[in-house]
């Protein structure tokens, strides 16, 4: 449901990619906030009943119990839950949006892979926050830069196979960041469809660079 909501925001509501991402992550924050404060385990993205969702949304409106939390980020939390309420009330385009999502996220380019990663930062790297995408440093461009406390994480994306030269690329980024931020711990993560053996060997004795492969996921939505 989360990915379908993202597409609905962009396609039907005309939101920018960044705004849609902000709304999507806001819903996750509201789910966590509700669980902690109401002592009830919920995932708002699993709620498709307006009767259940509407009272939750009202808690975060200006007159609601959690109005202050709704006010955060210039009211983004409140705008997000109200947008999701509108989304749930209009499910007729689910099939169309799911089809578009599957087409656009086939990872035919590293930009598509990057967009999908950014959408899911909270679930893929739950302890990190997004420091920058296409982060510029000394004329170089880091795909995604994440932060956790005093640790910076360089994320390099490859839609196909990641080879040995990717290790050198990430090592260079790490060096540049260490020079710019000497008080920070800097690590790297290479995400690709597959990993070349030479790259695997290069990373075995370097704990600062981790390797991950991605899998495509299809989400089914009732309509």
TrEMBL record:
It comes from Capnocytophaga felis. GO terms for molecular function: DNA binding; endonuclease activity. It holds the Pfam family NucS_C. This is Core-binding (CB) domain-containing protein. It comes from the Bacteria. Keywords: DNA integration, DNA-binding. PROSITE patterns: CB. GO terms for biological process: DNA integration. InterPro entries: CB (IPR044068), NucS_C (IPR048301), tRNA_endonuc-like_dom_sf (IPR011856). Residues 1-89 form the Core-binding (CB) domain. Transmembrane segments: none annotated.
